[in-house]
Amino acid sequence: MTPLVDVVGLRARLTAGEPMTLLDVRWSLAGPPGRQAYEAGHLPGAVFVDLDRDLAAPPGPGGRHPLPAARDLTTSMRRAGVRGDRAVVVYDQRDSTAAARCWWLLRDAGHPDVGVLDGGYDAWLAARLPVERGPAAPPPSGDLVAVPGSMPRLSSDEAATLARTGLLLDARAAARYRGEVEPVDPVAGHVPGAVSAPTSANVGDDGRMLPRAELAARFAALGAGSSGAVVGTYCGSGVTAAHQVLALEVAGIEAALWPGSWSEWVADPGRPDRPVTTGADPG
Q: Which residues participate in catalysis according to the annotation?
């Protein structure tokens, strides 16, 4: 089963009266705040979820967007109306890079039925479907109990080992991987042995995920998909890396997320066990 939900299918399910929780996860590292976009227009009945507040712990040694504690995720998802017996569909503006963070967290927390709206809010608008504007009424309280551990994850040490012995994909833009630019973190470059695989190549011009066969071919060319091969992925702070996990799942490949990602790796630049490589070669 694909984790993606298309606009036509979602509309049909909503029209049929299927109980469902819609979560709006619009967010951008450079701003503006996602709530502004939400109040300007959102899917009917959708609840806004703030990525920085609800889907991450405060920045620290674990990176810029550490995973939230189970109790905090439970609280935020209950506040958003998430129930364990009701399907959840998450979306962002367009390419699912933010929505995938919520998808991964809910899957990891044990929710059995979580999907991502392929193409996001832009796809909904393109289909000329109705929207709501302004703040939403508070949803009924949810009952989710987050029990993390259902999705594979990596520590920084495990990621470094995987880069040498398996396949660790770097989901950031290629220029950041090469160390030519670094707009956020204090050190530029990549983990030695990691392979560049920007998430931007997972989607088409319309913001929708590429077809399964194309994704499978892309990841095969990067070394993923071999029988028994272990695949991990990271980015700047563990957000877009979740999009890579989503794309790999669409392609039929299981992958582990490194939640701390590059921001954790370079949180203490003087550590000799955390070397940095620059250039196009994995190193």
A: 235
